[in-house]
Amino acid sequence: MRLVTWNINSVRARLAHVEKMVESHNPDVICLQETKVVDNDFPMKTFNKLGYEYSAIAGQKSYNGVAIFARSPFTIEESPLWCSKDDKRHLAVRFENGTIIHNFYIPAGGDVPDAELNDKFAHKLAFIDEVTEWFTEKKHPENKFILVGDLNIAPLEQDVWSHKQLLKVVSHTPIEVEYLNRMQASHDWIDAMREFVPATDPLFSWWSYRARDWRASNKGRRLDHIWVTPALKQSLKSMFVDLDIRGLEKPSDHAPVFMDFDLDL
DNA sequence: ATGCCGTATGATATACGA
Fold this sequence. Notes:
The chain has about 260 residues and is an alpha+beta fold. The protein has helices at about 15-25, 45-50, 120-140, 165, 175-185, 215, 245; strands spanning about 1-5, 30-35, 55-60, 65-70, 75, 90-95, 100-105, 145-150, 190, 205, 220, 225-230, 235-240, 255-260. The mean pLDDT is about 95.
């Protein structure tokens, strides 16, 4: 089973990239974030045409929005009203073999890394707190969960281009890392991307639009993640981040992250 | 972490991303 997670930054603006991505890598499961479209306007035909018969979408106007597509059947699992907002940041689906995939778009958090001064930062921390508590309650050694998405935090020093220069920048502040670490501990989640690239090597999934040459300057961050519960650790096979998709014309600022599993859905 | 780019929207400016 091959899975991809991708903050697509508007699905309607990126249909050609979706086709290119599927043509190149043919994933069995596609998890998208920041689709930025209401469900009625979702370009479903593009995905059906590419062979994705099963879908779950949760969108809203302009912002946020998540989606999951698969070639094998699934049912939709409950998704709480995180922080009492219906802002379309989470979808969970269950496959016939019992594997559950959680797709998250964690709030970005604004510019100022202080919950007292910045409501968006407070929302980010509160959201992570609620997710942490939720998985703590669900914790069981036999659970086969995969958690993917734009978690909007780069926790390790080598998850950003300069640890020192980003310590006060939202996405890499110690408080955010502390919250994310707590969330990771809530179900003994394994940071699956780092099973393939040691923590001492740089690993990024996002590069700002504002760099003149994003590839040359390479001032990236690892904001996108794939976690698995311990029951799935042995099924991890390989991982790659596709920089070629980030390098297409008018790309998303996030690159898709792929994971291969020794697993039949 | 400055940069000033990209998305969306009853829109020729503004909110948001990170």
